[in-house]
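Reopening this ticket.

The earlier resolution said the output was attached, but the attachment link was broken on my side. Pasting everything inline this time so it's all in one place.
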Amino acid sequence: MEAAHKLNQKYCFITMDLAAAKIALDITWSAPDKFSHVIVQFGGFHVMCSYLRALGKMMSGSEFEDLLLEADVCAGESIDKLMAGKHYNRAMQVHQLMLDATERLLLEAFIDETHSDLHFPDEVRTLAAAPNPDSLCAVVSSEEFVRFVTEFNKFRQEVREGKLGNTAKFWIIYMECVWHLLQFQ
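Inline output:
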């Protein structure tokens, strides 16, 4: 509070892990007048664990757990903890794996749906074979790539709006949630 006062800041933000934050919140709540300008917030790890728990809750009932078990991605004993956000590393691996799979399925559906002259640009294959700044610049500056990405994003939006049904719409929402998680990370 002294540091915030010296810097002429009205509020003092304190970021802590869960155990320390619980103690700090008890202190601030015990004297609300004295600590009215102290804001205790959880660290990024605990925010991500809470997000993983919310993501697990969103996916429960969607047969997400069955899919993980059938694919031998996760063992039955750890699936509940994964869905509750308790196994951070395992949950991150699983959601990244599922994101990769769903992105690939969406790309396949896009390619199947577009029967035009649109195809995956050769520059992307070159970049995949030999990643370097020059091949990345070639991809980004390729008109064909820009057109491909524009059309793919348009298709993604149409799926989000229900073009392929409610199940595909649900999985698009899941994919966006995982992308938000990865961006936060």
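Reporter confirms the inline version is readable. Strands lie at 12-16, 38-42. The CA atoms of residues 24 and 148 lie 51 Å apart.
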